[in-house]
Amino acid sequence: MATTPWFRRRPKELEREQARVLREWLRGEVLPFNRFWADRLRGVEKAVSHVGALDVVPVADEADLAGVGGPGNPGLVLSPTEDQFKRHARRGDLLDAARRAGGSGATGRRQAIWYRYKPVHVHEAGVERLLAIAYTRADLDLLHLGGARLAEVMGWGAEDALVNLVPAGPSVRFWGLYHAALATRMTALHPRGAGQPALAAARRGFALLPASILAAPVGALEAVLCELADAGVTSPNLRMVAPVGPPPSPETRVRLVELAERIAGRPVQVQAIWAPETSRVLYGEAPAAADDPPEATYGLLTYPDLELLQVRRPGIATTDREGGEGELVVTSLGWRGTALIRLATGAWVGGIESRTVHPVTGATVPRIAPQVADAAWQPRVRTAVGTVRVDLRGADRVVADGTATIPVRDWSLRVVDEVLVLALDVERPPDDGTVRALATRVGEAVGAIPDVRLDPALAAARPQVGDAGPG
After folding, report:
1. Most buried residue among 5, 211, 217, 382 by CB atoms closer than 10 A?
2. Contacts of 397 (CB under 8 A, 6+ apart)
3. Which residues make Cβ contacts (< 8 Å) with residue 217, sequence separation at least 6?
């Protein structure tokens, strides 16, 4: 019997499935098995019966979550006792646990619970603070499922061969690719260790494997392809390069295609792969149409039954699940290691589209716009005590409060030559004391006192705050 592919299910069906997973996960596992989240959701837990109602839950950032319960933030992990599991688990989970226990008594029951809830694998995440993302054995099955879906979106198959230049390490970007390759049964080589140069790993990779797919961090890919092409390296099987990280601009995509085709001697596609490091899975771009220009992309396909993605304007409590640009907020649906509920990722995205289908694949799942910036509000700046990472989210509120004393027509807050600069376009020059007071208030909010410049052109420059998008 034919079944509808996971990425082509009707939108209403996807919404119902997402709401069901959210409801069962929150009520059946998160609230009874995790004190931190139970306390954070106290008073609103009954209101969370569907996805829209999740907006009553406060948005958390990494400063709220890092270190909860000690090193590795174990306070975010779902940790039921055997009695709690018996009292709160769904019937299907109880039956599955009984099968896994296999009549082996207390040892079997403990191992059945461990399969679901004992952390066995950890990723690093966080921009300003180090955040541990723990996976249970059951979570690794979901990570593998996410890898299989990524490979399907990208159009990878068992006949492909992958050279992966993402450095080996505890990140979703490395392990997501590892599981994507494993799920398709393709041949894969991961030749780059942490701290090793990408070019040397690429040379070894092409010498060892007739690669059809090259995946590499977006910041290194163009330089690697340029060096390989100039050195006369050839790889006639190469059909796709996959930038891993924020999808490249149209101009960069064209350059990547030109360089890759010098190496392959044949047409090559560029399809990006991205997720914030706090995500549990990777998202990819489906192939464009054959007659599309090389820079064409229709966004990153997501998995609404594995993660709930929302968009917010930093400093504003509400989220907009449709259309608008802003900060990506993630809820890890159904994952049993580290639970994440409305985590502000620090990544800017151009929006999430769920009303129109993908024009090539017919996919109905929500798609992240291809305009993305990691750590958009958390740049590094030089200060009197050294280089620090600041957090610019919420700066607009502080500046808005300051307009009562300084008549500001426009403003921007950005890093200029490694220095944090607050540029103002004012109706009349303020006195030095008022300027210093505003700079101090902004500094207290973001982590470094900015230089204030009365510069209308810089104040009008967009993005207004950090690298938070084009507008």
Report:
1. 211
2. 315, 445
3. 165, 166, 167, 173, 198, 243, 244, 245
Of the candidates 295, 270, 299, the one whose C-alpha atom is nearest the C-alpha of residue 283 is 299
pLDDT of residue 315: 60
Beta strand segments in 221-322, E: 240-244, 269-270, 273-274, 283-285, 300-301, 308-312, 319-320
Q: Which two tokens stand for residue 124?
A: 């690093």
Q: Cis link prior to 247 (omega < 30° from 0)?
A: no
The pTM of the full predicted model, rounded to 2 decimals, is: 0.93
Per the CB < 8 A criterion, the answer to whether 132 and 120 are in contact is no
Enumerate residue ranges in the chain where pLDDT < 70: 1-2, 47, 49, 315-323, 403-404, 470-471
Q: Say which DSSP state 286 is in.
A: P
Predicted confidence (pLDDT) per residue in 405-449, tens digit: 788 899 999 999 999 999 999 988 888 898 999 999 999 999 999
C-alpha to C-alpha distance for 131 and 342, rounded to whole angstroms: 15
For 125, list phi and psi in degrees, rounded to 5.
-150, -175
Query: Is 95 exposed, middle or buried (CB count within 10 Å of its CB: 0-12, 13-18, 19+)?
Result: exposed
**Other Cβ atoms within 10 Å of 336 Cβ, number:** 26
- The whole-angstrom separation of Cα 366 and Cα 9 is 11
Where do runs of H (alpha helix) occur along 231-343? 250-264
**CA distance linking residue 171 with residue 303, whole number of Å:** 19
Supply angle C-alpha 145, 182, 328, rounded to 5: 45
Helix, strand and coil in the chain, % to nearest 5: 40, 20, 40
